[in-house]
Amino acid sequence: MWADYILSMVSPLAAPSFGRDPAGGLTSRLTYTSLVCSISSVHRRINITLPEETIRLIERVAKKGDRSFLISEAVHRYVASVGKARLRRLLKEGALRHAERDLKLAEEWCGLDESAWHDEQE
């Protein structure tokens, strides 16, 4: 399961503990004695409906106990990707919106740089 996966990646000195939070979700806490590191998370069971093709893809790459971890990882990567795409779009829109102003500023500064360079050469 996901806890086994995490434990396989860390020192054998890790001490896991599991329980339930007040809302009934599964909680886990992993504290390392040799490392300054702690992972704490709350899990909730949900029911989702997926297309058959998606289920086949999940079954191809994840064992039965690892599907939740795979889906969680995919959602996190998707959200990060969408955030990066949004940031790229906003930066491009801003650059296009301010292109004329930025070009004028660059031309003004370029003239100052050239005159300073010529003064140093003389």
Give a topology summary.
Elements lengths: L1 H8 L4 E7 L5 E7 L5 E6 L8 H10 L5 H31 L1 H23 L1
Antiparallel strand pairs: 1-2, 2-3
What does it look like?
The structure is a single chain. The chain has 122 residues and is α+β, with helices and mostly antiparallel strands. It has two domains: 1-45, no CATH class; 47-117, no CATH class. It has four helices and three strands, in the order H-E-E-E-H-H-H. It has helices spanning 2-9, 52-61, 67-97, 99-121, and strands at 14-20, 26-32, 38-43. It has a three-stranded antiparallel beta sheet, with no helix packed on it. It is rod-shaped, with a radius of gyration of 26 Å. 0% of the residues are buried.
